[in-house]
Every structure is written in structure tokens, then in C-alpha cells.
Request: fold
Amino acid sequence: MRKLKTQQTRQTKPGTKKLSEIAKHLVLPDGIVTTGWPAVRDQCAKMGVFHDEWQAGLGRAMLAKTSDGTYAAGIGGVIISICRQVGKTFTIGSIIFALCIIFPNLTVLWTAHHSRTSDETFESLQSFAKKLKVAPHIAAIRRANGQQQIVFTNGSRIMFGARENGFGRGFADVDMVVMDEAQILTNKALEDMVPATSAAKNPLIILMGTPPRPVDPGEAFRTRRNEALNIKKQRLSNEPIESDMLYIEMGADPDAKLDDWTQIAKANPSFPHRVSKKSILRVKKNLADDDSYRREGLGIWDDDRDLARAIPEALWAKTATDTALAGAPTYGIAFSANGMRMALGAAIIDGDDAFAELLDADEGALDDGMQALAKWFAETDNNGIARWRRSRGIVVSGSSHTPTFVEMLRRQKVSPKWIITPNTPQVLAAAQMLDNELKAETVTHPEKDQERLDASAEIVKKAPRGKDGAWAWDSSTSDGDETPIEAISFALYGARTSKLSGAVPAAKKGGTIL
Reply:
């Protein structure tokens, strides 16, 4: 009896904190009546693996079961937002090794977005498989690229691969899926992976990663977090709401100072007893900038800071003005991908300075759709000069309706020289230009009467395009409209690059550049 008691006390490190004490956000699934943790804990002990209190709590919650014996988080999944250097691979990896030993023929997919990360995880768990007390359970370790896997003597196996190479699609009868680098996980990629578990009797999907950057395609991760925080909020208000997911977030306070070791300990429960100060400083030194360290080193989401907006609120307010510049405008027209929305913007430049605004239905430009807009460009002033001739060009983008609208402009006798249809690199450059000029405060926008543009600035995100860091504007919400910001981006880009000239209207305080 004494020997058993000694073994039990060794299974967690004395003095470490519980999960509920260190988690910034903890949302448990409903219907928990038991957990598969005790069997896993005992198997880990046989392998010589002992967990901290918070790791044991994570395992207990992750393997929680309902009355029918299935995982309580089997539908919504296990979502873990955690900074680097905490030991998530060791924690999740040791639990999965124990499960593979306990349950014969268990199949696990472990994916990361990048091949480099997947390879590093495989190397780490390959070393774990070679431990003296683990090796007897291992039948084979296959190292061939695209076929990396650890095979157990009882038929269980863990397969590794990168999502960027298409790994994960086409599998069937998978019991568990671990999606590392969840900050780079699109809803489409998640949808491709989930069917692999459809035939399993008791599947479990685990998403884990650091808070995403603005340019990361982390909509799946961000959506799950928003859902979890909403559940937590309603539960705190004693409002009835059910949860089929487990959400765990560890992180420092949003306004934490980067050199505050108390905050670092708050974000990283493995510091300092498992992770040294030198390891933390090494991570900080090798990250690109302070914001990267906040996300990856401190677990702070941009959503909890002003950086939650691709265009920060303070910056948008700072670049607002009540005076338009004098000069010939360049117009920008953006069509949404589904063709349901469009926006008309205009920009004027004067040396290094620029002014951009949204010309919406209030000005009569969009009242009756594309045909009316084409006619609007052909309207003449008192001198008989058409509006398009008084401009420095019309930039039109959006594959849904651009060809049709361009043809409408030509029917209105608009010169082809004035019609600019940017290619993909130019569309991306236009987005980057607006972003850069807002930060440099070289472009301003109207302070008043721009509700649709202001609303667009609140919800736009930087959606990655390609693998070279390029991005385009997109909506961060299902009902948001990115086209106003796109329209002024195209107008600004056209104004900066056009070699055309036009008549110069007078600037009006609080006015418009129609």
C-alpha cells in the first residue's frame, strides 16, 4: 500500500499549479461523468513519464467522457492556445503514446502546416519512442518522407505529415487527429481532415497552436476561440448554453511588458522549473519583432489588443480629416468575390500626401447598380467634359463583374486608357500600399459621413495569398464588407501610379471629391 502511494505522488510534480489556476480561459464540454485519464496516467508512469499538475489537468479534461463512454469533446474538439517552449509536444505526445499502448489498432494523424514543423515533431517523438521503457512497445519507426510513422507492437500507429503537402486527406478509420500550428489552419483544411474520423467509434480532434498573426489563415482557430469565449461569457452570466468542445488558453495579460518575468511565468507554466530563462530569451531573440514575441512567447492574441483590427482603431481615427485635397481624382471600384457587393472609392494625391474616400449610394453613384455607375462616369459638367475625363483613371477589380463593367464603360465612350484592370500582384500591392500609407500617415480619409467605410475598416483582415507573405483585404466576419477598403486601396494605387491627368476640382472643407 505504501509503495502504491509513493508512485501516485510521483505522477505529478509537487508544487506545480493546477490547470484551472494557470489557464487564462478554460471552457469544459458538457456531460462529463468520467475520464480516461487514470489509465493514461498509470501507463505514463510505467513509461517513466510524470506530469505537472496542469498537464495532468489537461489530460483529465481532454479525455473526459460522457455517460455513453464517448469523449465529451468528441464533437467540438480539443482546442489549445499555448505559447512556445511550454512542452505541448511532450504533453500531448506522451498522452497519445499511452493511448496507443492501451488501445490496440489505434490510428493517429499528427499534422502541422509546415514540413519543417512536422519533421521536428516526428524527430522528437521518435526519440521518445526509443526510451528504455517505451521501446518494447514499438514495432517499427518509418522515416521515409511522406510515410513517417511510429508503429506499435499492438497495431497502433502515429502518422506524421504536413498539411501544405496535402497530408491528411483521403485517410479513413482515423481515431485521433492532432493539428499542430492551428494558427495556420483554414476552415477548408479542417473540413478536409475531419472526414478521416467519420468511421471511428470514439474520435477526438485536437487543435493546438500559438495566437495567429494578422496574415495567418487562422480562421478555424479564431472561430473556435470566439465560440469558446462566448460560451464562457454566457456561463458567467448564468445563461444556459451547451458546449461540445474543450478550450484551453494560456497567456499573459494583453498589456504585459515583454520583460516582466511574472507575466512570462503566467503564460508559460513550464517556466522556470522545466524551461530556463535562457530558453525564453533565445525564443525572444530569434523572433521577428515584439508583436511576434507577444503571440509566440506570451500567448497574447491580437484580438485582445488594438492589433485585433488589421487597421487599428487609433490609427484610423488619427488619419481622419475634415479637408479634402485639391486635384483630379482617381477612382477605384471593387466587386466582392460573390458579386453581391461593390464599392466606389476615389483618391487624390498632392506630392507625398493623399486623400481617399468612399463614394457611396448617398452621392447617387451606386443607386441603380453597374449600368447607372457607368452612365455616372459619362456625365458631363458645364463645360461638356465627362467625369471620367476629369479623372486620372478608373481602377476596376473583382473577377465577378469586372469584364462586364469594363464593357459598360466602353459603351459610354470611356477611353480604354482610363480603364485600369489590375493583375493579382497589383491587387496585392494596392492593399499593401494603403496599409503602409496609413501607418506612415501619408493618406487621410473623411472624418464624417463615411459609415460604410468606417465599418469596413473595423472588420477587414489581411488574408494570405501565396507563400511569399503577400496578402489581400478580406472580411473577418461572415457579414462584413471588405469592398469599401478595397475600393480606396485601388483608388490610391491608381493615383500613385497613373500617368494620366485630368481637370482639377476645387477642394471643399468637409466635402467630397466627386
Remarks:
- Residues 313-497 form a domain with the Nucleotidyltransferase; domain 5 fold (CATH 3.30.420.240).
- The longest strand covers residues 342-350.
- DSSP finds 17 helices and 20 strands in the chain.
